[in-house]
From TrEMBL:
Gene3D superfamilies: Fumarylacetoacetase-like, C-terminal domain (3.90.850.10). The lineage of its organism: Bacteria, Bacillati, Actinomycetota, Actinomycetes, Micrococcales. This is Fumarylacetoacetate hydrolase. Belongs to the FAH family. GO terms for molecular function: hydrolase activity; metal ion binding. SUPFAM superfamilies: FAH. It comes from Subtercola lobariae. Residues 73-283 form the Fumarylacetoacetase-like C-terminal domain.
């Protein structure tokens, strides 16, 4: 299944068409996107056997954040060895955790206003939780996953790195600094949920010396230092994960700071994860 947020209502997306979940279920699920994840087990049981009506075509510009109001947003730092290497930092022995404040969440294809000349990109797999989860092991953690989406962890590096202590969460939480989508994809839709190709292509002024189009990131989630189920299990030893919670799982090498570049007005970044689709952000 692919669950999206179309103009504020939960929908199932198939082949460029959308079915309104609340209408198809006679009001049993939705219409608020978060409500679907709060009833995730019952919803998936219903969806397996439901006789859905024909979907309606939709405009991708109407897609909003698949979960616009999660109770918690977690982000994991330094979770790919190649990214730790380019950052000249040691591989972590434990999860490096911060948050992106919920006001930074946005739909998949938003325009991002650059607050400074020091904004960076980080393409990430986003995990959506489908069950309340506390103190679970790795096997139990897998069962709590509702699905995956594509996310961007944009960062204003000067705010993030200013002293006396780093301000990770603040520097990563400007408006539209956490776009994600286009839909939440259940793991049964993916050939290998543990090995997804993660790519980012930058076009515009910053890519001018590369013919106008530059593949700046190309990695795989198979290289995560802490795989998805381990992230969930480790987080759950401290916090209670709730339905609809988001986890940004880290980024592979190729971020701007590692390349000595930052985003400029007129740039466009397209982030792609195999099986999940693509999201595109423009910068002004």
């Amino acid at each position: 299944m692919r669950v999206a947020n179309l103009a504020g209502r939960a929908v199932l997306v198939t082949d460029g068409t959308a079915v309104d979940i609340a209408e198809a279920s006679d009001g049993q699920f939705g219409p608020a996107p978060l409500a679907v994840f709060e009833q995730w087990a019952d919803f998936t049981t219903w969806a397996q056997d439901a006789q859905l009506p024909a979907g309606a075509p939709f405009d991708e510009s109407d897609l909003l954040a698949p979960v616009p109001n999660p109770s918690q947003v977690f982000a994991i730092g330094l979770n790919y060895k190649d990214h730790a290497d380019e950052s000249k930092l040691a591989y972590p022995d434990d999860l490096v955790v911060f948050t992106k404040f919920a006001s930074s969440l946005a739909g998949p294809n938003v325009t991002v206003e650059l607050p400074s000349e020091f904004v960076d990109y980080e393409t990430e797999l986003v995990v959506v939780i489908g069950a309340e989860t506390y103190k679970v092991d790795v096997d139990e953690a897998r069962a709590s996953i509702a699905g995956y989406a594509i996310g961007q962890d944009y960062s204003e590096r000067m705010v993030q790195r200013r002293g006396p202590a780093p301000q990770f969460s603040l520097g990563k939480s400007y408006p539209n600094f956490a776009p994600f989508g286009p839909a939440i994809v259940t793991l049964d839709e993916l050939d290998d949920p543990d090995a997804l190709r993660v790519e980012a292509v930058l076009e515009g002024p910053t890519a001018e010396d590369h013919g106008g189009s530059w593949q700046v990131q190309n990695g795989t989630t198979a290289d995560l230092i802490f795989p998805v189920a381990q992230i969930i299990a480790d987080l759950s030893q401290v916090v209670t994960l709730r339905p609809g919670d988001l986890i940004f799982t880290g980024t592979p090498a190729g971020v701007g700071m590692g390349r000595g570049i930052f985003l400029k007005a007129g740039d466009t970044l397209t982030s792609t994860i195999s099986g999940l689709g693509s999201i595109t952000n423009r910068f002004v």
